[in-house]
Amino acid sequence: MGNLTVNQVKAIVKDQKAGRHADGDGFYLMIPRVGRPGVVA
Description:
- By secondary structure, the protein is an alpha+beta fold.
- 24% of the residues lie in helices and 27% in strands.
- The chain has a three-stranded antiparallel β-sheet, covered by helices on one side.
- It starts with 5 loop residues before the first helix and ends with a strand.
C-alpha cells in the first residue's frame, strides 16, 4: 500500500506543487506546470 494519503493528495493538487510525487509503491501523482493533474503507475 502506498504512502500518499487522500489529504496529502488534496494538498498537493490544491497548492499546484509541480512535479512527480511518489507514494513509495510505484505510483506517481503528476502535477504539470500547466494543465491538469494525472497519475502514472
